[in-house]
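User: Could you go from structure to sequence for me? I need the amino acid at each position, not a summary. Structure tokens:
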């Protein structure tokens, strides 16, 4: 199996892992996937996929700039419906001034708002950042709690944000489902679900325990840089031969060339 993993990664690095079908076929395949039409993976295929992710990137890291659990929490709240790159442009100045709840409250909502105004929905996010800071001081001694219930009780913190903080700050094997993970779960057939919670629970069910600590990072990075929404880079995908998405042609099929079944 290790040899198969190596071959798949080498093919992806050469841009020869697979090829995407025409746009119309891709859209049709994605629509079918969102209705649970993509075949399920076998346990052995899931294990092999994460073996490859681990071989390619043993220690994946989140891309949001942060200093401590509090700044991580703030960064994730700010990243809702925004890109990590966009958030990272605004937060260094913010965190230089306020890297604790006490400093954030002292900074005040107007100043926070001014510092994050390049981020989408910045007014409401600035309000939530100050409010959650006040609640951390009042109810948690200024510390970020390490329980889902307590995190989700904070202003602006939903399940995905809580999962990211629990995983990155406290080393808990959670599964944070963002738009990338949701897309991969449905598109590939790895974990189909009608909403993020359904995909999260399915991923937790099927992913081997030994991979769970880094699983959501591998999937997020895969969705961000390879399995793109509009133009998936199947040619550089290390799990292309395992993926069940009918919008691509795996390497073996691509080599068939004129074989009608390869283009079905």
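Assistant: Here is the amino acid at each position, in order:
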């Amino acid at each position: 199996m290790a040899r198969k993993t190596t071959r798949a990664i080498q093919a992806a690095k050469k841009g020869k892992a697979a090829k995407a079908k025409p746009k119309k076929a891709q859209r049709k395949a994605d629509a079918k996937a969102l209705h649970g039409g993509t075949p399920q993976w076998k346990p052995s295929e899931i294990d092999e996929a994460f073996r490859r992710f681990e071989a390619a990137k043993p220690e994946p890291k989140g891309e949001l700039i942060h200093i401590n659990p509090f700044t991580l929490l703030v960064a994730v709240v700010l990243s809702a419906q925004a890109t990590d790159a966009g958030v990272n442009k605004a937060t260094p100045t913010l965190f230089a001034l306020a890297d604790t709840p006490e400093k954030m409250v002292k900074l005040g909502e107007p100043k926070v708002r001014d510092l994050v105004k390049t981020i989408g929905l910045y007014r409401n996010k600035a309000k939530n950042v100050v409010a959650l800071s006040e609640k951390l001081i009042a109810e948690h001694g200024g510390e970020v709690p390490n329980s889902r219930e307590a995190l989700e009780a904070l202003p602006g913190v939903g399940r995905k944000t809580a999962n990211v903080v629990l995983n990155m700050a406290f080393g808990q094997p959670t599964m944070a489902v963002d738009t990338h993970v949701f897309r991969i779960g449905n598109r590939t057939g790895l974990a189909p679900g009608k909403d993020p919670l359904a995909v999260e629970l399915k991923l937790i069910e099927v992913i081997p325990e030994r991979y769970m600590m880094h699983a959501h990072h591998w999937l997020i990075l895969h969705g961000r840089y390879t399995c793109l929404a509009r133009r998936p880079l199947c040619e550089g995908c290390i799990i292309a031969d395992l993926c069940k998405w009918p919008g691509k042609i795996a390497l073996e099929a691509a080599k068939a060339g004129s074989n009608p079944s390869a283009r079905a």
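One structural detail worth keeping in mind: The longest strand covers residues 18-20.
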